[in-house]
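ERR on first pass: missing label on line 2. Operator R.T. fixed the label and resubmitted. Corrected input:
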Amino acid sequence: QKEVEQDPGPLSVPEGAIVSLNCTYSNSAFQYFMWYRQYSRKGPELLMYTYSSGNKEDGRFTAQVDKSSKYISLFIRDSQPSDSATYLCAKVTGNQFYFGTGTSLTVIP
Amino acid sequence: GAGVSQSPSNKVTEKGKDVELRCDPISGHTALYWYRQSLGQGLEFLIYFQGNSAPDKSGLPSDRFSAERTGGSVSTLTIQRTQQEDSAVYLCASSLIPYGYTFGSGTRLTVV
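pass 2 clean. output:
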């Protein structure tokens, strides 16, 4: 079983829609979670990280962790064409990063 | 520098040749990672350097792969006798703290 599973999509939404990106993870050792955004031919850039269960907001982005179901989500409100990218979830345990395969998102103007 | 710098940005090599990929991390960052990203495969951990500690090489896929980090700064990933399955984007990331890694733009390696 992979450490992190992520639906690859692709996901296509109209501008202004609320986007929900999801991952599941295995193992429950102390860890924290991150979301990265990767534009084409660029390296991933960190969007958000969180240690605990619950929600963390940053502008139009909300990261949610449900440790009871081992589910992590990223919500994007009022999506913009500039949000079109691949989104990667990651679980960090110690010095090991485990990445999902990424979800490709296209926001249509 | 302002970010993590990787060179070359693109490399095409013939099967069987050796290649060297370079990563110049953000100044002062003690942690440095190498990852490989293949289409549809996500990021695959290769190797991790932290300060002067022995590197974690547990992700290197074969003994054809090696990496070093000189003076706690610049790192070089070497692939010997390249194979077509080595074709991928090789990403380097650095950090001063256990989170918030900054990635470079990667080296796109094509083995023909």
